[in-house]
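dumping this here so i dont lose it
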């Protein structure tokens, strides 16, 4: 179902690589975790960059995802390893706390230039008025729905509001006479993308900011509406039974197998979902609280940063390589080859991309996306999941549970910011 959006003469670009003898004066290391399409693309891009910058050589090194941060920590602490590396934006606080990175050099990247070139989510890697990384590609959320299931119920278009989504999900849900769930009207799953949905979409659409503007204070219970939306969201599963978390994290698999009619997922799920040729599906922008209501979305991205190892000529070389891999030309190629959305403001406004039936809803969603400033994404996710479990499994009071969650999240945030001030 994926439509080819950009037709790039990539092979022609590769022909620019000269066969002249190497004149390398400096070698930098670029590290990323192993993801096949990204690794192959970087391997093809490096010769192009080297041809354009004959005094620079780039050594490309990868590690398994689970070992990546450990390898970076060991190498940088020893004054070795990467000069430029690919990191999840949510890891930035951890990397800053360890002192692994340096702010992007103003000579190449001014604050004004960065904010003019990149979509607003780039602010998630701005700390103390300085940028510490740049995105190559970004992700947002959208609603995937099963076209055949919709047709069965006579639905001709996706829901515009969350009330409509719930009503449709109830009608789409199928159970046996004994109550066993056969088909989820909505693939409700807090461990999937729904914990982002609650925090950055539902809370904000109900007028509740999850964090203060300086990211230091958790404000998820700052308005009574927060308790209402938390209970209502959990009741999709608990009260209305449109989905169950019997297989945590398998919401996308359920949709792929035709056992879920709707899911909220990221643009990174397109490749997996499109792998089933027998599945008729479509994508829509996320619903809103009410017609004409405020839009909100969650965005995330992988970014490129420069480590403290890069000094002198290596710093200049690292900056030039960072300029290259975050250029609009490379972002276009990245979309085509990896399937991740461009972070460039100019590309995000490309009519062909914005109106594409698959990519369009995600691209338009970038305009109102919020990238959460995590200080420890793993711990923060676990705390939210545990709070939801208390309500689902132990029937804990919603207000008390949310208040305790805010206290627990605040402790994590306080510990991080206090550590930076020591």
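and the seq i came up w/
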């Amino acid at each position: 179902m994926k439509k080819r959006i950009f037709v790039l003469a990539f092979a022609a670009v590769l022909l620019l690589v000269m066969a002249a003898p190497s004149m390398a004066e400096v070698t930098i290391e670029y590290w990323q975790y192993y993801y096949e399409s990204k690794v192959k693309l970087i391997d093809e891009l490096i010769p192009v960059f080297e041809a354009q910058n004959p005094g620079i050589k780039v050594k490309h090194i990868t590690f398994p995802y689970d070992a990546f941060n450990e390898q970076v920590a060991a190498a940088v602490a020893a004054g070795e390893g990467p000069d430029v590396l690919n990191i999840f934006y949510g890891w930035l606080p951890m990397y800053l706390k360890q002192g692994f990175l340096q702010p992007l050099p103003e000579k190449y990247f001014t604050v004004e230039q960065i904010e003019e070139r990149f979509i607003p989510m780039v602010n998630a890697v701005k700390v103390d008025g300085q940028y510490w990384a740049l995105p190559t590609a970004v992700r947002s959320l959208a609603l995937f729905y099963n076209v055949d299931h919709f047709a069965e119920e006579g639905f001709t278009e996706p829901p515009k509001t969350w009330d409509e989504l719930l009503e449709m999900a109830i009608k789409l849900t199928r159970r046996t006479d004994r109550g066993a769930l056969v088909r989820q009207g909505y693939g409700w799953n807090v461990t999937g993308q729904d914990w982002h949905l609650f925090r950055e979409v539902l809370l904000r659409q109900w007028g509740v900011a999850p964090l203060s503007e300086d990211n230091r204070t958790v404000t998820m219970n700052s308005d009574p509406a927060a308790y209402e939306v938390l209970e209502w969201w959990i009741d999709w599963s608990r009260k209305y039974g449109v989905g169950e978390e019997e297989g945590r994290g398998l919401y996308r698999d359920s949709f792929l197998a035709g056992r879920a009619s709707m899911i909220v997922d990221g643009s990174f799920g397109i490749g997996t979902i499109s792998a089933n040729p027998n599945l008729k599906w479509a994508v829509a922008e996320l619903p809103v609280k009410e017609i004409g209501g405020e839009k909100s979305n969650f965005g995330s991205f992988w970014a490129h940063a420069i480590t403290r190892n890069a000094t002198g000529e290596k710093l200049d070389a690292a900056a030039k390589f960072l300029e290259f891999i975050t250029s609009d030309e490379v972002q276009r190629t990245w979309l085509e080859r990896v399937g991740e959305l461009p972070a460039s403001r100019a590309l995000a406004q490309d009519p062909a991309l914005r109106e594409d039936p698959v990519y369009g809803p995600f691209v338009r969603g970038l305009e109102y996306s919020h990238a959460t400033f995590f200080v420890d994404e793993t711990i923060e996710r676990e705390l939210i999941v545990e709070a939801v479990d208390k309500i689902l499994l132990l029937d804990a009071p919603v207000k008390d549970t949310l208040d305790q969650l805010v206290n627990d999240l605040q402790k994590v945030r306080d510990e991080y910011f206090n550590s930076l001030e020591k």
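DSSP finds 18 helices and 13 strands in the chain.
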